# Entry
Amino acid sequence: MDDFLLGCEPDTLSIRAGITRSQFGEHSEALYLTSSFIAPNAAEAAKRFSGEAPGFIYSRFTNPTVTAFEERLAALEGAEFCVATASGMSAILSLCMGLLKAGDHIVAAQGMFGATQQLLGNILGKFGIETSWVPATDVASFRAAVKPNTRLFFVETPSNPLTELVDIAAVSEVAHAAGAWLAVDNCFCSPALQQPIKLGADFVIHSATKFIDGQGRVLGGAVLGPKEPMQEVFRFLRTAGPSMSPFNAWVALGGLETLRLRVEAQSASALAIAQWLEKQPQVERVNYPWLASHPQHELAKRQQKAGGAVVSFEVKDGREAAWRVIDHCKLLSITANLGDTKTTITHPSTTTHGRVSPEAREAAGIREGLVRVAVGLEAVTDIQADLSRGLNA
Ligand SMILES: *Cc1c(COP(=O)(O)O)cnc(C)c1O
# Structure
């Protein structure tokens, strides 16, 4: 990447960072669909394998299209190093496998993405890595959960579907005082709205499947962080192989170019819909960080540039009423995916959080009447009309 780009604004970086042109001088980012790369001679091949010389070897390790994506995302997150992965979950796996060993302890926020809870709680548990779960909004409980073997704090903010916030700056101080790292899953905000490393986090995790692609086309993920510990993450990826495909990197690269515009427009629509929902008599409660009624609205304004695209609300009369709203939608897609230009709607307690026990769901506040909407780019009035059908049925 050209040095002069380092001083440029995020809008410029999202378009220009990470480009290296081939001998043909192509203007747009090239898609290198090749599994391996040839070396000019045996000595050079040996140097590339030992890491003495730069240069591509094999696309499980790196690929020029994937590198372009990694450099662009690193520039936007303000990170020293980025490793792209096949999905968001393989990013979390690669981070943990790179940094941790049997006997280590993780402090994680409750209410994280369901598969993250399964991975940290059940799968890593089988390998002797223990996780303690603490309420996301309570900084003191993070401190109280620290053990002598705590190596990693893992959080997601805002949370899904209740949009609870973790105070990144405060929790990073607790983590560092304990001699541990803080990793933040920045999927819901994206670097367009929140840059966890600037707030004190050590690592950032992405599911590029969500807002980064932004059009629901490909899976992808990334781990970002300081160069030195990231080498361990890269070593795991290069060996175990949950690497990002060049095609998916090429799609996600294009997604980064319009990320801020999309996320800002989606946030503006989400706020309008959240404010409108608060006025509907059938709605008991609306969760959205940019509403003055959100318990952490002040924190949201400190650490985010906008509220994001995800709104959840609770209707009176529980599951029956929630399903009625969903089933009357003609425009909104009934799917658990989010971050898409197409608005999606889901019933968390029977889909994304269906595997959580009813008691744990109730304790977490994910009740039967809760509906989650991930706002896309359709007209706000059309989205409201779709939601009105079920609310008024
Ligand atoms: C979707 C999601 C993930 C997992 O990403 P995949 O790309 O589906 O593997 C992780 N964290 C959050 C917050 C997500 O929404």
